[in-house]
Amino acid sequence: MSITSVDQVEPRSEAEQRVLDAISSRGVADFSNLPDSSRELSATFIAQLIAGTEAGLPLLSGPLRIRGATVLGALRDLPANRSGGAVTLLFWACHFDSPVDFSGADLLSLRLVDCTLPAFIGISLTTKADLDLSGSHFSGIRSHTSDLADVGDCAVHLNHAHIGGRLLLSATSQSRFETSGSVRLEGAHIESSVELHGALLQDCSDTALSARSAQIGGNFELLPGHGHRCEVHGEVSLGAAHITGDLDCGSARLSNAGGRALHCEDLVVESVFLSRHDPHTPFEACGRLNFLSATVGGSFFLTNARLCPGPDYSGLLGKGGPVAANLQQMRVSNALILFNIGQLEPDAETAQPERIQPVQGWFLLAGAQMNTLIDSVETGWPAHGYLDMDGMSYERVRQIDGGDLVARRTAWLRRQFIGGRPDPTTFRPHPYEQLTRVLRNSGLSREADAIAVEKIHMRLAARVDSPWLRFFPRLLMLISHHGYSTSRAVFSFLAFVLLGAVMYTVAIYNFNQAFFPFEQPPEPTEYILPFGLGEVSVPLGCPGLDTPTYALDFALPVINLGQDTFCRFVPDGPARWLWLTLHSLFGLFGAALSAVVVLTLTGLLRRD
């Protein structure tokens, strides 16, 4: 440390001389063991030291280190072009009775660690390295006038600051970072990470933490630190921010019951972690999680979390009920992971990880896009009637809780509806069609068919169409699951043929109705009943008639088995009209059923 030689203009106080001696020895001006009256330093004296333009004071060429001092007066208005260039300022466990205003300053590095002060104002502040406010307590201010802007209610104001390293707002081994007022980073440019490890932000009349349009070169971390979880009482706003790294809220507690707990609309980020960092402490949020139209370059984790929904916004597309997570139109390049998500009671001190109750609030995923959906059907989704997936798209789906895939996914899709049953206003076909496409592309054709059948079943249950328009789909569902079940279609046709065989057998055996040949006169004939049930002799009949084969041949209009072209049914007597009607209806419905079998085999009835 070098000191420019100057003449002493006026005698210095004992505290000021201690600082000057520390500068001379390249040490720390330590006031921590002195009585309170000996700790007092003038803010004007420190400002003059930093500026380096006051006669009689040394010119700083190294860090200014002060520990345990009480700084009286407002420390502010630092010139950006001081003599000797930028400096490093290190304050430990100091008390400032007025806000510290470094707006427009240009520093190498600044540390205010374990300090107490009303507020730190750094509008357009520039540091070449870290800005460390860890362990400090900010009581907050209600109004403050800076040279660069009017500052309202806040505790830390760093709008448009440029931090060359990390921004540290974390707990230390000695103290927790606490604010009674908002932390503002709007438009700030931070080259490395923003760390709020074990921080406590509370008593905010405005947004608790606002980093709108901020540029962050590392991670944005709300993590535990030194035995404390990160707690924010108020909105965390990252709207339109650009985070090169991850947004990590492991085991954080965000509380803003009357609005948004986490506002990340138009956020650009690598990955998002809303999960637990500590095995016994889940992520907790009381208020709406808003990631509308956010862009996630990696994966989005909402796991081991407890949520208390917040009110919906009052716009045109608002659901009108409580909203837990708004992920509409979000873009996730890799995976969306959802599991172990439960309800958090608003007045609960902490969540009970072992008890999982479905969240009674909307999960809005309309228009969301992701590569892979990884979830637990049982614990990854809200209660019935609070899920909106219309327009959500994904390429792969994985479930972590095992079990029958079709049963699990059917239960998942029914979570869209109250009680698992849709109505005309809630039924949407897209979620079914999307899952069907994904399963079919994965080679799971049987499972895809089952989901497609479920879509038709739910549409019929919702009564979207008029009764007449629902009649034929219901009939097709009964016969062939609307073309998705070949076996059902074939068995339905064979059952109908068997019914026809019984009808013709009864006509011969019990009602003495006749079959005559087409091209030759009838002759005495002995019919053998199906399955060896007996024999029937008739004076005039059609030799070679076999009623099951005749029924099958008559029901197949295209394929000729030789029965209906050799023998013809010629009923007589008082019931002749009834038998002719039954015969005609059997031929008509047989042709229709055979057509359904063909259309099912060719897949033309399917509606993926």
Amino-to-carboxy terminus distance? 77 Å
Per DSSP, what share of the residues sits in E-state strands of 2 or more residues?
25-35%
Classify the secondary structure makeup into a structural class: alpha/beta
The average pLDDT score comes to 90
Characterize the biggest β-sheet. 32 strands, parallel
Number of helices: 9
Bulk shape: rod-shaped
Structure, described:
The chain is an alpha/beta fold. It is built from nine helices and 47 strands. The protein has a domain of 117 residues. Helix 7 crosses helix 8. It starts with 13 loop residues before the first helix and ends in a 6-residue tail after the last helix.
Key terms for this structure?
608 residues; alpha/beta; 32-stranded parallel sheet; 6-stranded parallel sheet; 9 helices; 47 strands; disordered N terminus
